[in-house]
Amino acid sequence: MLRKFFHIIIIFTAFTLITGVIYPVAVKILASAFFPYSSSGKIIVKDDKAVGSELIAQNFESNKYFHPRPSSTGYSAMPSGASNLAQSSIMLKKLFYGRRQSFCEENFINSTNNIPAEMLFASASGVDPDISPESAFMQADRVAKARNFNLSEKNKLMALINKMIEKPGMGFIGMPRVNVLLLNIELDKIK
User: Fold this and answer.
1) Angle at the Cα of 185 (from 184 to 191), degrees rounded to 5?
2) Are 166 and 176 in contact (CB under 8 A)?
3) What are the sequence ranges of the domains in the chain?
């Protein structure tokens, strides 16, 4: 009996070392060697200062910037997660109607029929950095007005949104999307 116990301890220790130490370290080394930018969190540096990550949404409250999709975690990556509200939840319905009304009011939209779902519902992680191109175009008038853009600058803004659209992975995985942080960084360059 004691012998079986020692075998179990040896197997447990071996698998703990393999799966808890050796494998993660090997993956980190390989990722750093072959994908250094991605493996370091895709940190964006501006004027020698880290301003964010391409992978994690940030809350842009100013009307001068494009807004990300709502977050049930306050855009905190620790802990990230969803609200876990069921479709039958009264709270989810209140959040939905409140977000829809706010989005329409702040973006000068008359009809609530065509608002993309990501602007009305939080993502599963709470930190999804991307919105659909439709969401970005719907926010363009608000951003242009807040920045006092003339027609030429507004046209540059629309061209910028088009330029920032990321295609689906391998041409068919996922949907076209716009990274809000990258868009807002480029937005500041429009003069």
Assistant:
1) 90
2) yes
3) 1-40, 41-187
